[in-house]
Amino acid sequence: MIPSSSSKDDDLLSSSSDEIENMAMRALEHLDETKTDAHVVHTEQDENRKELKEKAEKGEIDQEVGANIQNEFGVCGWILTILSYLLIFVTLPISACMCIKVVQEYERAVIFRLGRLMPGGAKGPGIFFIVPCIDTYRKVDLRVLSFEVPPQEILSKDSVTVAVDAVVYFRISNATISVTNVEDAARSTKLLAQTTLRNILGTKTLAEMLSDREAISHQMQTTLDEATEPWGVKVERVEVKDVRLPVQLQRAMAAEAEAAREARAKVIVAEGEQKASRALKEAAEVIAESPSALQLRYLQTLNSISAEKNSTIIFPFPIDLLSSFLQRPPTKLKLFNYQENQTVRCSGDDSRSSDAVRRVLFEATGGPPPSTQTVWFNTLLTVTRHYYVKTSTSHRVFRPSLMIGSESCAPSTMLPHSSKTHAC
Questions:
Q1: Is the distance from CB of 133 to CB of 158 less than 8 angstroms?
Q2: Whole-prediction pTM
Q3: Nearest to 404 by CA among 336, 343, 349
């Protein structure tokens, strides 16, 4: 029986899926093995680093290196050494100046003989001897040195480009390792500081860069110290010097900060006004309950004013005495005709003089007034903005149309010697 095409496809699919599954399993096993090997290598490196650090502290590294050098020095090396010593003795007065060297308290000398490190490690401080022609040495400064990390253009975690520079303080902890393991320890540390600064700040946001400088400095110092330990370098301190933002971003942040300050100021002013209003309300309630409190307040004000050196003192006038004058003034002119006299009351400007009122009355009568006519002002009631005009005659004094102040009046029929009241 010939199998159908569908069964063949199913077999192919099943076989291909099995192969893919097997390949995936093998890849996972290989990945696990790689991870295990990497972990083992990393563990060994950590152990070697710890051992190297302990030996460097105890000075065992220099002794081991010296022993290996002594074993591998060879016959030629010994022959050249003997010849050099003979040359020194032959030219002793002159060679003494070339053999004696001095290093300062803060310096160490790493001596090489025929290109190999001398046993005993670095020499100094003080006097040490070298053999001319076969010995060379390098001085290493053990003081704390510093360098500035050039400004680095860094893209922060929140996609903001900033320029950051820093200062690194370091010292040489092991002179022998710093000479034999790295060409230029200071330059290598400087280059490593640049990359470390970029790597660390690339994982920080702008707010963290501006606020957590101390944490960033500590993290950078720890990372650099671990990386430069095989070079014989000890990183003492790292300081983030400056974080420079783009000009546009600075303007935007300044505008935002100013808007926030204005908003807080408005809130504070509103709260102050609210508290002041409540205090005034409570004070008004207290004064309303006790009218004598207002008089006491007047006396306190007078006391405070009298304490100052002022030539003018303002005495407060009791409000209850002015209550009768604070009513609304009449808006229309009224004319009263009596048997004995005639009184005219009108509203107008309180700056109007008696001569002006007399002139208006003269024009209203159409001729000169009687000799008995008088015009006067009540000076006490000037604050009510009213004028009182009194005449001793009873004949008609107003024409059909009269303008006094801002009021215009056209009285109705007015009879002489009448007691009726005609209003506009």
A1: no
A2: 0.48
A3: 349
